[in-house]
Each structure stands twice: as structure tokens, then as C-alpha cells.
Fold this sequence. Notes:
The structure holds three protein chains of three kinds. Chain B is α/β, with parallel strands linked by helices.
Amino acid sequence: MNIIVCIKRVPQTAEADVKIDSTGKDIIKDRLAFDMNESDSYALEEAILLKEKFGGTVTVVSLGYPETEDTLRIALAKGGDSAIRIKAEDFDEIDGYKTAVILSSVIRGLPYDLILTGCMATDDYYSMVGQTLAELLDIPHASLVTKLDITNNKAQVYRELEGGLLEHLEVNLPALVTVQTGINTPRFASLIAIRRAASKEIKIVGKSDISKDIISNATLEELFYPPVGKRAEILTGSIDEVVTKLATIIKEKGLI
Amino acid sequence: MAGILTLVEHRQGVIRDITFELLTLGRKIAQNLSTQCSAVLLCDNAEKFIGQLKNNAHRIIVMENSVFKDFNAETYQIALSEILKKENPFLTIIGHTAMGMDLGPSLATQMNIPFTTDCMDVQIFDGKLRVIRSMFDGKLNARILLKDNPSYLVTYRSGSIPVETGNLDAEVVKLETPINAQPEYRKFIEYIEAAVGAVDITKADIIVSVGRGIKDKANLPVIEDFAKVIGGVIGCTRPVVDAGWLPKEHQVGSSGKTVKPKLYIALGISGAFQHLMGMKNSDTIIAVNKDPNAPIFNEADYGIVEDLFKVVPVLKNKILELKQTKA
Amino acid sequence: MSNLLKLNPEIRELLLEQGAGDAIKCYECGRCMAACPWNMVDGVNYTTYQFPDLIRLGAILCSEEKEAICQETNEVFRCVGCDSCFYECPRKVNISNILRSARRIMIDFGSYPQELKSLFLRLNSNGNPLGESQDKRKEWADGLVIPKFTEGLDYFLFVCCITAYDARAKSVAFSVAQTLQTAGIKFGINSDKEVCCGEAVRRAGGEKVFIKLFESNLKMFRDLKVKNTITISPHCYTIFNNEYKNYHNFQPLHYTQVVFEQIKTGRIKPRKPFNKAVVYHDPCTLGRQSGIYEEPREILKSIPELKLVEVPFFNRKNSICCGAGSMGLWREYANEERLVNLRLKQLLNTGAEVIAVACPYCLQMFEETLKSMNTEIKVMDVSEILWESLKLETDQ
Lengths: 256, 327, 396
């Protein structure tokens, strides 16, 4: 089975201060750490598991700047066989749609039975790249997949719906699946795999290798801080004091 | 002026709340643009749904066929592409839900119309469409301008619009269905209910909910102890389930359960929007989190900025004390 | 680990590059295994002596099997860097450093216990492991008048992140500062530029994060022309002594050394009695790694009515690690598998009423664990006990 995994290197913002830079259209990155987008790491693990079961190759593709090669090497160390970096520096105004268009131009020429990617990137929250990419490649897709089985060249996918309900679909291969976190347990890399990955060549692809004209769908005009909503009443004092205040509130509301 | 289309989202015979949010929005936009808002309904039996929709749209565009009994993004896409070709709407609005995510981007790409996802607000001026979206773990918002086009598509975040009932009387327009059977390459097989565990947190009056802030499974007993004392059940966020610390039946959020208890205590939960969506309508929300900037404090009624492990044991004893002194 | 170990020169080279050179010296006598505190915990079998061998062969973390790598990675990250093995080793093989060489690579490739991830992120973006903001770093000193360090002052007081930010531990920084002021020591601080010393993250293998912290502090020391530092934490002390000193000419001191001198010369005289049995726990970084055993004890002995007791045999160089080193403070092990329980049992068995510590990590580790135990014993830093005895009625 030939599997392509699309990954993205994103800033780790969950526990960091995020500040808008002087252009007003990007964030200040110097104090931020970057890593593989979380749901993409689950997609990668799913691909490796399938490779272990069925044999074949896993190709990892990422549209990113030169530092993305570090992330691609991590993907290689965890079991990817080859990696391609598409030079983000060759394009401007990259958003979810444009990413899908660029990816499709590169992936179109590659052999694949299955394309896996994470369901959502934690920097832009678009949840659109996978589905758009599938449409451009004219293959069926399924998003938010939380369980995936391959039998007889068909994918049995289980999509996670609201309320924990699962939607079971049968999709012919080749197909594209976007994967939810929790679908598996991402593995650690071994030193042997790390060593191998360190010396593997990452294929670099640029604008000149893409015949198609890449156009944008939209423009980011401005980033701004969300308005501070109605704030909670913050209880202050020593731990004993705040706990007493809180417990009293709970009791007065007749909740205990 | 080209109209507004909104997609009716229904599942297992029930129209989901997002539908009415989108219709509220659609009607407002239609009014501003002096045009009409139409609801698009793809189903096997329109009768049972039309009554609920009649007041809320100018038109209901129906394709009625057994193939639409259960959602399949492919059948919907085939149908909607026909409808869009025919209607040429200015704006198509779909919910940013499990259904909408599966359908919206591929539909818009097939139709070659500019689109964006997970919008919290739309601004239409001079034929141009701008949207407000959330980014970077919800810490920043962005204003996006879509490329000039006569037609656009957006998926809209649920819970962003207060629902209003319309006072319209929709004209029902029945259209021929372009397909009669599910495509062979993508078939809906079945729904699988979440396994009913020992606990149904949606029925509880008090929920004590934990997030990544509890740091490890080994710390759950302290929380469970507290929950027992206060008479509540345990809830949690998605990462806690992903890490295998609690089974999925405890998950509160967009892909877990939506709860409306009398008291929701959020411990070590930062307040990612996927979680907020599942509990924001609780009567009283109390949040304990070390981070004063945690988004949960925007949803909570009361907050304590402190290490939850310092608060919980003391709170437990206090509650025990108060329970013993009958008021 | 399979009995048949394949020799892999490339892995061996990779690890030697990262600093595992000590592995070559090992002759597998096994004394490290007897010394390692993990092997005193029921149910844990830490095959310490195998690590140098595996490194020499390039046979560590080499399985292609997912489960096996997961288990082996967890074992590689188990080491708390207490250096008991190093102390006992006849050839002075530093197993903590050897394991660190593997951990550095694993961390670079996202393969490590995930509870450490947020620590790396917080240290990277906020300069402290608690993820607090820099402008809060001075709040521990509220109520004190401490000058900002300038060249004219004798000492730079380097404040451990835990004591700067943690509500309980702030009193340690407070007590140290008050004591030094009472002794007339001329010192200053810099809460605007000071960031974590990086000792724990470095030992754990987070080299990239460490270098960022290191360069920031180094620049501060150079810009301010710091010649002498007093540290509150012995972790800061050891990394200053072992690493920072190679790049900047300065003399690090631990506060117990300075305070001991002041008591010896009579500059400060503890007067108020502290009528309790106190057991002193030697922190790994102050004791075994730095050879500072008697100064904290002399400080305690100078306090009227204080009864100093010792853990039989497991004191001074034989002290058992509290488990907090090498980012162990943030690791989560099952209750039966925690080093801290082992040490606490020893300390409780002395019958003491107070555990005296001289390290903020030990303080936190013991306090957190004691919370879930039914006991009256208290944990206090040596400086807090001393300040109790030194302070006048009018002091805080």
C-alpha cells in the first residue's frame, strides 16, 4: 500500500502568549516552539500502522519553510520512507485552500492508495485542506475519522459525530481520510530509525516544478485580539478564604 | 439580487439546532441585501421537517428521496451542486459541524467558488464578503476577505448566533433528485451509538470536569473523591480521553456530550471552544485554573486562579462541613 | 532487551557525539545497580549497569517494535540524575550523562514522556517551568527592599524559579533574603532578566531549551559584571559550577555556605528556640554532587533547642534522592513506583517532627506527597527554620 501523509509544522500556542507582529497579519514567533500539528502526528502513526500491516511505503509531504525539514525528519524517524518539502517561501498568502491546491499539484504525479492527514491545524483551525485536496484529486474523502480499517481495497471509516455517535462509511481506494486525535497512540522513534532519517534526502519542490498557476481564495486582512467577554467573578484571598466563599455560593444556590 | 441558501442539517429524524442558527443568520443577511433566504432540505420524508422550517425561510428547496435518509457527503454534494447551479446564490451557509466539514470544502471546490470555514461572523459590503475567524488556539481572531466572486460558501461555527424564530411562510419548492442510489465509491453503512457506559453525564445535576490540568491518571482519585462528596459525576475534555485516562462517555464537548447541569465545575480546563460548546449552557459554571488568561474564565460565572490540587482537597472538606450543618 | 545484541557502530558514534564517552570506561561490576535508589523501590528493577554496555555496542533504543521502544524510552527517562551510581563507580562512569546523550536525541525527535512537553514549551516561551510571566518574578520580594544588582554590590542573589513563583516556596526566597540582609550582606537581584538556570531541563536532555536559557542568563551576568552569586537552589549552584563558570568568570555559592560563615563569625546569632526534632535530608545536588554536607547541619545545630537527627546510614553521601531531579518533579509514576515514598518512609521513621531541606525541588516533592498522607510532619527549608529563630517580633 502506498500511503501519502500530509503534515504541517505549527507554532505551539496552547500555553504560550500569542502576540501580533508589526504587520498586523502574523504573530511574533521568536519565543514560540514549533512542532508537528497534533492531528497530523496521529495521521502519520495511522499510516505507519497500515504499512506494518499491509506493507508498502509511506511518503510524508509538507508545504513549509526550511525549518519544516526538521519536522519531516521526525516523521521519517517514526517510520516514513521518504519526504517531500514544498517550498512555502515560493508562495505568498498561503491559506488552507491554497495549501490544498499546491499539495494537489505535487501529489497528482505520485502513486498512492491512501492519503492521510490530520483533521485540523491548531494554528488556523480551517479543517479544509484534506477535503479540498480530495476534491482536486477527484478521489472520495472522509473527515474526522476515528477508526480506519482497510479490507479488499476498501476503507471502512468511522467518522466521529457530535455526541460521540459514529458514522460508518465504506469508501473505495484511492481515498483521502482526515484523522481525529485519539485514533491511535503515536509512537516513539528508535535510534536506528533516527540515524536512518538523519541521512535521508528530503526532496525539495518549488514553484518552478509546479506547472499549474496557484491562485488564492481569500486574503488575511488583519489579526486582532478577541474582545474580552463577560468575565467570571474571580474569587480572591487565601485558599481557605476562596474555598469558603465558593462553598457558600454553592450552598446558597441550593446545589448541595 | 441572488439569494442566500442555508443547509438544513438533520440526523436520525431530528433537525439539529445549528439549522435554526443558520436560518436566523440567513434571514438577517437576506434582509440587508433585499433578497431571500432559502433552506435546502435533502431528506427521505420532507413532511416531518417542513413544519419546523416554514416560519424560518422564504423558500424551502426540497429534494426528497430515500437516498437522503442518512447523510453522505457525496450524495449531498451531487445534489447541492445541482441546486447551486440552478440558484446561483450569493452566499451558501453550511454549519461547521461534522456534516458541514465533510461537505463544505469539497462542494465549494467542485463549484469553484471562494469559501472559508469556521466563521464566527460575516460582513458583507459592496458585494464583498469578509468573515471573522478564530486562530492560534483561540487566542487571536482574523478578518478574512474572500476573492471577488458572485457566489460564496462559508461554514459557520455553531453557538455563534442566538436563534430567533422567523415570521415567514416559506414556499416549498420540490426539485428532481439527480441521484437515486448511493455512489458505489462512497456508501453510508450505519450509525453506531456511543457505548452506553455506567454513567450518563447528560442526566447529572452536578458535573465535576477535568482537563489536562490534572496532569495524570494517577490524580483522578482525588477528583473522584471530591465528586462523590459534592454529589456529582465526572466529566472531562477530549485530551483526557485521548490520553486514555477516562472513557469517552465522560467527554464533554462538540464531539462528546452536550450537558446542561445545574452546576459545572471545570478543573484544570483551559476552555478550548470545542469543550465550551458542550457545557456553556450550564446553569452555574465554576472554573479553577492556574492560568488567569484561560478562556474558561470568559464562560464561567465564578473563577479561582489557583492550582486545582491546592483547591480541591480544601473545597471537599468545606462542602462536607456545610453539608453537615443543615442551613 | 534481547539477549542477542547487535553491534551498531553508527548508533554508538551518534551517542558518543552527544557525550556518552564515559560508557567506554565501564567494566560492568554492577556497583551502580546496588547504589541506584530505583532498585530499592519494590517492583522496580532498574538495570543501571547495562546502559554503558548498550551504548558501547550501539544497541540501545534500537528495536523496530513500537511497544519495545516505548518501554525502553520510559526506562531511559527514568533516571533522576542523583549521581549515586557515579559516586560508587570505581571508574567514575557518569550514567546520568550517558543516558542524557540518548535523551537529547529522543527529545529532538519528539520521542519522550509527553508530560515533559509542556515543560519544554513553558521554559522556551516564559523562561520558567511554571509558565508564569516574567513580570511576576519579582513578587516574592513584596514587602522587602532589595536593590537591583549593580557592580558595586558583593553578590547577585539568583532566585530559583520555584521559590520565585510558587505560593508555598516563596517563603524560602523570603527567608534567605531576610537572613542575608540581617547579616549585612550586600546583594542585589534582577527579576527582569533572570530566567531558569536550566539545570533540570539540561539533565533531562532538553539541550536546545537549555542553551536558550543559558545564553540569556550568561548575557545578564556579563552585562552586569557579576562576580559572585548566591543561589537558593543547589541545582542552580551545580550548573553554575559545572557549566556557566566555563563561560563567565564568577564564583557561585549556595546560601548555606554564606550563612554558615555568618553564623561562625557571629554576625548572626539565632536566639529564638526551635524546640523540635529535625531530620536533615541531604539534597543530591548539594550533598553528593557538591560535597556540601556540614554547613546546613551547622546552621541547624546553631539554633537553640533544635534536635538534629539523621537517617541511619542513608545520610550525607548515601542520601536517597527525593525523585525530583532531571525533571522528575513533573513526572507521574504509579503510587507504588515513586522514589519519594521510599525516602519519606526513611525520614518519617526517624521520628522527627520536621524534615529540613535545602532544595526547592525536595521541598515541593515532599510537600506534594505528604498532602495525601496522614501525618503531622512538616517540611521546611533550612532558611525558613533559621529565619524563625532569627527574626525579631517586628519582622514578618
